[in-house]
Design goal:
Helix content is 75%, strand content 0%. By secondary structure, the protein is an all-alpha fold. Helix 1 runs parallel beside helix 3 and helix 2 packs antiparallel against helix 3. The N and C termini lie far apart (54 Å).
């Protein structure tokens, strides 16, 4: 989410090369992480997940570094980044709770369908 936000800022000021560069950096770190964790340490899907998250973090760090060095048509300070309590409560009520209820109801109905059409197998001892 942070990468997408920063990428939108770059594209909004007319710079599409920097987001491409940060995606390339993330891809290199993701591939290297996959090779090290999955092939080297035999971590499987957990290793792939760790590599992906690590690559995204690196991408955000690189994006923040580049955006701090770039001359922007507006000023950006540390105090501008954050969510105020009232705004957070409004977002939770308006977006998060309905999304959670939707996901729960969808998962619950799929679980019921799965149990109806594919009952647990009974293993016979022979």
């Amino acid at each position: 989410m942070a990468y997408n936000l920063i990428g939108c800022i770059f594209r909004g000021i007319g710079d599409s090369r920097t987001p491409l560069f940060t995606v390339a950096v993330a891809c290199v770190f993701n591939i290297a992480g996959d090779l090290i964790l999955c092939a080297g340490f035999k971590m499987g899907t957990s290793g792939a997940a760790f590599a992906t998250v690590f690559a995204q973090i690196i991408s955000v760090i690189v994006s923040f570094g580049v955006i701090r060095k770039k001359e922007l048509p507006f000023e950006m300070h540390k105090t501008d980044i954050g969510v105020h309590g009232r705004t957070l409560r409004k977002m939770v009520g308006r977006f998060l709770l309905p999304l959670v209820l939707e996901c729960f109801s969808c998962h619950f109905s799929m679980e019921m369908c799965w149990r109806e059409f594919f009952p647990p197998m009974q293993w016979s001892e022979s």
